[in-house]
Structures are given as structure tokens and as C-alpha cells.
Amino acid sequence: MTRVELRCSDPACARRVDRDTATYSCPGCGGLLELSYDLSPERAQDWPGVWRGRLPGGADHDRSGVWRFRELLPLFPDPSVAVSLGEGRTPLIEVPSVAASVGVAELAVKHLGVNPTGSFKDLGMTVCVTEAVRRGVKVVACASTGNTSASMAAYAARAGLRALVLVPRGAVSGAKLAQALDFGALVVEAGSSFDEAFALLRAIVEQLGLYLVNSVNPFRLEGQKTVAVELLEQRGWRPPDYVVLPGGNLGNVSALAKGLLELWEVGLLSRMPRLVVVQAEGASPFHRMWSGGRRELTPELEPATRATAIRIGNPANWPRARRALERTEGLTEAVSDLEIESAKRELADSGIGCEPASAASLAGLRKLVARGQIEAGADVVLILTGHQLKDTDYVGEHLSGRPGIRSAEPSVEGVGAALRGWL
């Protein structure tokens, strides 16, 4: 069994901590913890063939697009203990018409909204909840803008655990809340923002004996990092020039970078893609920090954007995200809600639906290409993080220029009248 331990993610500290620690921060410097393994470069060259051989997927853990890559997740001696819903195995879809419109040579979208609960959160939750079961946890908890709550509730139900969700009052899509409620979670509305709800939850976690599954939990990032493996496998191990993704609490870019760096270390990655984080203008503290050349993040006290999944003003993972961009020569961008709406519509016109936050990646790419920060001949992959049905209210609010809904009398003539001007 490979040695597994936690260590501080800050290289200046790198303090090592026992895997079973109940804290989520380094006891030395207060930095976030991450999992560390002794991966074997000698055996790694065989891994792509092993992973490909599991694709038919007889067992649950082989059908999973996370646990299929378990050589990079040596956490449990018996993979059959995994709490899985068949997560991962999400499509990589080429969009040549959008590539031509934006002005890049190649463009594809990796659609993580095609997961059991409709978002990328499932990739991390399968690992996090499996670890909760190993520890004998009874109640898992999260603060959420919606996607985390839906995912946690589903995996908790699968494992027979209870689930507690704190959400900002009136600021979460009804569709996402419905998912959490349907899976049996207790949802508590508290505070006016994700940041306030998260601070409240962290204050009560220890005294109530809850297991926190937000992305400060290092086991979450382990599942999410497998996007890097699946993406490269789908591309025949040919890395793109850029990978562009939306940024909220910044766990996703941190996880993606960890996966890429581990593949690099074992010799399965020929060159490192540049990572690009796109935030909404009204919730862009990380972009302001990075583009301003600063080392410390100043929180956005009143984050504002209709893309609720990234409406976060004080992202917990910003130090890890900063190091991710440093290691990959990364970029950031901020986009308006109007630019997000336009990008979402452009993707929909190619038959690809996503929630608003996902479309920020395309909106940011367009601005960076127009400014010359991403070259016209680039090979780019966009990460879409959530499903189209995550926020159906948004669709109804942005139908201008679309055919929409028309009423008709129940007759041939009535339907014909409704089609007048459209055919």
C-alpha cells in the first residue's frame, strides 16, 4: 500500500500531518492541507493501458471516471469500498463554429455537467464521502451556492449518512435546492452570501462533530484532479495549449493543477497546459489580485453576479490557485454578466447547454484572444462545470431574441397562426 499523508500545501512550510487529522488547516502556518503520495514513475508508463482496460467497467469502481484512475488515488486498499454513482466519464466535445467565432485553431468543451447530480462536484464528493465512511462519520456538512449541496446530499444518501447544508438566504437556484432536498438533506438558510454561510459552518463543525466536505477538505480535490487524466486520455495524451475554467471558491483550478503536476512527475505529460481562471466581474477578487501583480487577496465584501455558482467574494482556495497559475504560467480574466449571457447563448446555439457560471469560461477566452493574451492559433479546452438545468429560472429570464413560448388554439388553424412569422 502506497504511503498516504497530509501535508501543508504551502511549499514554504510543507509540514506533514497524519491522514486522520480532524483539522483542514496546517497546524503550523494555517495553510490548507493536501494529500501526498509516493507515486512510482517506474510503474506509471503502464497506467494508461490499465486505465483503458477498465473502460468496459464490470464493477462500480471501474465504471467510475474517478476510481478508474485509482493508481493516482491510492487511498483505500479495497476499491470496492468506494461510494460511487458512476461519476466522471464526461464528454469532450469539439465546437469548430465557436472556435472560428472566437479566433482559435481548436476548441473543445469538457462538459462536467454530465455527472450524476449535474456538476463537477461529484468527482470530488465520491472520494470525500468514501473517506467519511472510513472515518465512521455520521453527518456530513457543507456551505453551498447549490452544486456542492446537491452532490453531497446524493453521495451521503448513497452511503447512508445524514447531510446538513448551509446556504445564503434567497441566493441559490431553486433547482439546486430541490436536488438537496430530494436526497434528504436538511437545508438551513443562513447569511446573505456563501462566504457568510461558510464562516458560520466552520465555526460549528468541530463542536457538533460534523465532517466538512467543502473544497478546503483535501479529499475533495483528489477526485476533482481526475479531470486532468480523463481529458488527456480523450485527447490521446496530447495536451492542449490552454485549459480555461470558471473560478468561484477556486478548488477546481487547484485540483486540476494537482492532477496535471502529478502526471508530469510520473512522466505521463509531455508539456504543461496553461491554466486560465475566469471570474464574474462582480465577484473577481482573485482576478484583481493576479492581474494586479499582488501576492495577497483582498476579499469582495458584497459579491454580485447572476452566475450564482461563482458568486463568492472570499475564495478559500486562493493560495493554492495562485500557486497553480504560477506553476502553469496561467492567466485570469473577469467578465460581465452580459458577456456570460452571450457566451451561454453561443454554446446553446451549438447544442451545448450549461449553467451560467460555466459559460464564463467561453466569455473569458473571447476577451483574452481579442486582447492578444491567447494566440489565434491556440488549441484550447473549456471546462463547463454545471448542467443547463441547474438554473432554469435564468433561461426564462434571458429569452430575448429566442422563439420562446406561444399559445395556440387547439386546432390546425390555431397552431398555424402561432407559427406565423417563424416558418
Number of helices: 17
Distance from N terminus to C terminus (CA atoms, Å) equals 65 Å
Structural class: alpha/beta
What's the architecture of the domain at 92-116 and 220-397, going by CATH? 3-Layer(aba) Sandwich
Beta-strand proportion: 5-15%
The topology string of helices and strands comes to EEEHHHEHEHEHEHEHEHHEHEHHEHHEHH
Task: Give the overall average pLDDT.
Answer: 94
User: What gross morphology would you assign?
Assistant: globular
Indicate the multimeric state. single chain
Number of strands: 13
Stated plainly, the CATH topology of the domain at 92-116 and 220-397 is called: Rossmann fold
Let me know the largest β-sheet.
6 strands, mixed
Low-confidence stretches: none
Q: What does the model show?
A:
This protein is an alpha/beta fold. It has a domain at 92-116 and 220-397: Rossmann fold (3-Layer(aba) Sandwich), CATH 3.40.50. The chain has helices at residues 41-44, 47-53, 60-63, 96-102, 121-134, 147-159, 174-182, 194-208, 218-224, 226-234, 251-265, 285-291, 318-328, 337-348, 356-370, 392-397, 412-419; strands at 4-8, 16-17, 33-37, 92-94, 106-111, 139-143, 162-167, 186-189, 211-212, 242-246, 274-280, 331-335, 379-384. The strands form 3 sheets. It has a 6-stranded mixed β-sheet with strand order 4-5-13-10-11-12, with helices on both faces. A 4-stranded parallel β-sheet has the order 8-7-6-9, with helices on both faces. A 3-stranded antiparallel β-sheet has the order 2-1-3, with helices on one face. β6 (139-143), α6 (147-159) and β7 form a beta-alpha-beta unit. α6 (147-159) packs parallel to α7, α9 crosses α11 and α10 crosses α11. The longest helix has 15 residues, at 194-208. It is globular, with a radius of gyration of 21 Å. The model has no long low-confidence stretch (mean pLDDT 94).
